[in-house]
Fold:
Amino acid sequence: MSTKRVAIIGSGPAGYAAAVYTARAELETTIFAGLEPGGQLTKTTEIENFPGAPKGVTGPALVMSMQEQAMRFGSEVVYESVGRITKQEAGGFEVETESKTYLFDTVILAMGASPRMLSIGEEKYWGKGLSTCAVCDAAFYRDKVAYVVGGGDSAIEDSLALTKFASEVTLLVRGEKLRASKPMQKKLESSKVKVLYNTSIKEILGIERITGLVLDASGEEKEVVTDGLFLAIGHIPATKFLDGSGVSMSEMGYVKTGLVDGNVSWLTDFPTMTNVPGVFAAGDCVDYRYRQAAIASGMGVMAALDCEKWLGKAE
Ligand code: NDP
Structure:
């Protein structure tokens, strides 16, 4: 079995941006795109804040053009999920999919993270009033009514982002208190956001798009009218298959790199490297804070440059 230079696991902006750089640097690159290629971008509609797309671009169009650019420089795309990566004693990594095992000198992890869902059938409203990213979509709610679900920092950040546009913003907290940090809670208090505690969503109303919600407010059912629903109830990084690989992850399952954890000994040369030499990581599987396509792309570029430099040193 021949050993290729770079395996990129994940086909969102982090993975494709990394592939553009590694392939253009003439490092033989394979992207493992998974069974649902494209990541979170394929679930968004219009993206107005991706630099370089002044007229806006749809998520699927953006991801397809990133793939085309990566392939232009010779990256290969495998439409399978990776089940395991194993460090080889002689150096390099075995990357296993359901049908085949491959060998690579290095691996860039870019699997992303999925927003946690309520599981009440909300998926059918994606882009039709349902969003998991207020930074991306708040501007579409000018003079409209919006509800946000969650009690952490993201929920407050999303609610505050919406106040700049929406006429009314209500935050639904399932329990008695917020989990968010004190400074964020303070910001919330001095905002126009209305907070309803002990309130959850029983049902989403609307045919073409969201028009209302049925709430369970301390056991009492009530119907409200809304134009939008923003879920901010956490994310699940797609890192389960790394269990047993030796790659360090946080309690929440995010991959640790020097860049995010600030481990200075890693930061010196390879900020995007994990604790396993030769394994790098980028995008939302690392970044629990920003979760933006532009940032994931930038992190992918950083991982590719670190990887190239590391391969140069390892030779
Ligand atoms: P968190 O995991 O911190 O919070 C998730 C929230 O969603 C909790 O309040 C939880 O409720 C609620 N929740 C979970 N499931 C449901 C459900 N089914 N129905 C209703 N509510 C639900 O996630 P975040 O995305 O807010 O934050 C992730 C990390 O990113 C944190 O470390 C955070 O501090 C950080 N961050 C920091 C920011 C900043 O500093 N400005 C901005 C954004 C994120 P419960 O509390 O009852 O469990």
In short: The mean pLDDT is 94. Helices lie at 13-24, 59-72, 134-137, 153-163, 182-189, 258-261, 264-267, 293-314. The longest strand covers residues 101-109. The CA atoms of residues 64 and 251 lie 33 Å apart.
